Each structure stands twice: as C-alpha cells, then as structure tokens.
Amino acid sequence: MGPRLCGGDGEGGGDGEGAALKLSRSFSISYISRMKPRHVAIVTLAVVLCSSFVAAQTVPVTRGNFTYYFDAPGYIDQADSTLRAARTRLQTLLRSELDFQAEIFLTDSEARFDSLLGGQFPDWGAAAAIPALKRIVLRAPGSSSVSRPFAELLSHEYSHLALGYRTGLNEAPRWFDEGLAMIVSMQWAWEDNLTLNMASVTGQFIPLDEIDLVNRFGESKARLAYGESYTAVQYFFDNYGIDGVNEFIDQIGRGASLDEALMASTGSNYRDFDEEIRVYLLERFNFIGLMADMTYFWIALAIIVIIGFFLKMRAKRQYYRKWEQEEKLASTDFDYGDPDDPEKSDDEEPWRR
C-alpha cells in the first residue's frame, strides 16, 4: 500500500491515490473529476502542501477529537459544543466510535479559504469537508456567502467526515452523504418544503444518481438536490431502520456496487429504489402542499407589507412634525410682545381690541 495522506488513518484512511480520488469526489468539481488519477493526486498534494503552510500561520487548539485552526478563536467554544453533539448522534446512527481526529478551519480570508480547498469551489458554498484529510473548512460567520447558522454548517460537514470514515476507501452516493448530513444538522426549512412541492408540480425532480454532480449545480437546483437527498435518507431510515442503513454502509465499505448494497439492505436494486423514492416524493409533495406553502407565503408577505406601511406612516408623521417645528422657527410673522413689558399678555395689546 502506498503512502497515506495526512488524516488518512483508521477506517477512513487509504493510500495516496485512493485518498486523492476521495478528495476529488468530495468536491465533485468539473475540472478535477475529469482528471486522470495521477493528476488528481498531484492536485491533492498541492492542496496538502499549501494548506499545511496556511495552517502553520494559525495557533491550533485541540479539544478531544477536534483540532481548531480559527482566525476568530471566539467561535471555538460554540464549535466544540456543536461538534461533540453531532459526533454523539452520528455514533448512534452509524454504529461507530468515530475515533478519528478532525481538523476544523475557520477563516475570514477568501484567499485562505481557496488555498485550503484548492480553489474552484462554488460561490454559494459556505463550508466544505475533505474526508481524505479529515478536514472541515468554513467561511467565517458574517461573510456574504454564509446564510446558514454556524452550528448547522459544522454539523453538516462533520457528517461528511464521519460517513467517509465509515466507508473507508469507498464512497456512499452523494444523495446519501448529503441527506445524512442534513438529518444530523436538522437542516430543513419552509423553503425546502416549498422547493420540493414546486418540483413535484412542475415535474422537475432530479434522479438520485444525478445528485452526484451537485457542486456543478446553480444554487436553486442545488437546494432541490439537497431537499431530495434529505427526504430519501429519511425515507431510508423510516422504512428500513438503522439496521438497513448500516447494512447499506457496510456493503459500500466492502466495495459492493450500489445495486448490491441496496439489494442487501432494501431488497431493491438502484433503479427500483430510485423509483421508490420518486413515488414517495410525488405522494408527499404535491399541488395541495404547494398551495399551503404559498398561503403561508402570502400571509407572511401581507404581515410584512402591513408592518412596512405602519413604519412608513410613523416616519412620515415624525417628518411632518419636524417640518412644522422648523416652519415655526423660520416664520417672519412672529409676535415678540411688548419689549417694555415682556410679561404683558397679547390680550392686553391695543391692536387686538
């Protein structure tokens, strides 16, 4: 077996070429995925060398199974609490101790973010996991690309490392990887429900095997891919249990094909399982659901409009009051009273009689 990349020990470890291929799959970036294995290995080596230099510029903080390289150390406590909780949940779901050391990078520098990931990362991406290196890289909260909560991003990316550790040199399909990550991070919102209802009505569901290309998708299509992934994995757990899910993972780890792994865990081959998921999606998400989601949308919009109207009227009244005060102060028709008798009231002035 060839030399191991850093972070390639344990179940998730592997030789240089295998780990390099895993890195390329983690990104699913077009220019990497078209390379030959030896070229991918060169790219991986470049990432390792470059990111090692970058890591040396930050003082690491190690707590248990996590080593933090944070440009903003104030986030370490929150990160550690979040990752410990995610690890505990994944130990149950994946039936593994997950006894590996993870490196967590957080940076507010775009150049550093790119160097840690080797560049060519989608603009909409706020974080990434590199299972071959047991590494998570995040943009700092407050960045224009960060729209998800910090804890949610961390849990999501750690799930990728955990699943990569379980499957070793082999990889679960992207829909399973992303769906599990969303379950662990509890990453489901009203917008996801709306997206899937809309896709059901317009017939735009994505076949599971096409989700492997999610990093090439635009943001809206990527949202649909993630939503389908979440639903498919939740369906997997609900209908085949933790036993079935782990049988699937074990089969993948042993190098079985997706047909073989699904047949052993669900009794269906890949095509039949994909159809099973499609039917479930069509049953769960439909026109009625879309109308319900749109109702909530219009109610929320109406509330926003009403609040906006009252705030605008309040600002207008304040402006008019200020204007009236300025008019009074600037008026040339002002009665200054009798300068010889300032206390004398206006009613006693002869001209008023």
Question: Brief overview, please?
Answer:
The chain contains twelve helices and five strands.
What does this structure look like?
- With 353 residues, the protein is of the alpha/beta class.
- It is 59% helix and 7% strand.
- It is built from 12 helices and 5 strands.
- It has a 5-stranded mixed beta sheet with strand order 1-2-3-5-4, sandwiched between helices.
- It is globular, with a radius of gyration of 30 Å.
Mean pLDDT: 77
* N/C terminus separation: 114 Å
Run of helices and strands: HHHEEHEHEEHHHHHHH
- Number of separate strands: 5
Q: Helix count?
A: 12
Provide the spatial order of strands within the biggest beta sheet. Answer: 1-2-3-5-4
SS strand fraction: 5-15%
Helix content: 55-70%
Global geometry? globular
Low-confidence stretches: 1-40
Q: Notable features of this structure?
A:
353 residues; 7% strand
Write the layout of secondary structure elements.
Layout: H1 16-27, H2 30-33, H3 37-55, E1 61-63, E2 66-70, H4 76-94, E3 102-107, H5 110-117, E4 127-130, E5 135-139, H6 150-167, H7 174-184, H8 190-202, H9 219-253, H10 258-266, H11 270-284, H12 287-330
Parallel strand pairs: 2-3, 3-5
Antiparallel strand pairs: 1-2, 4-5
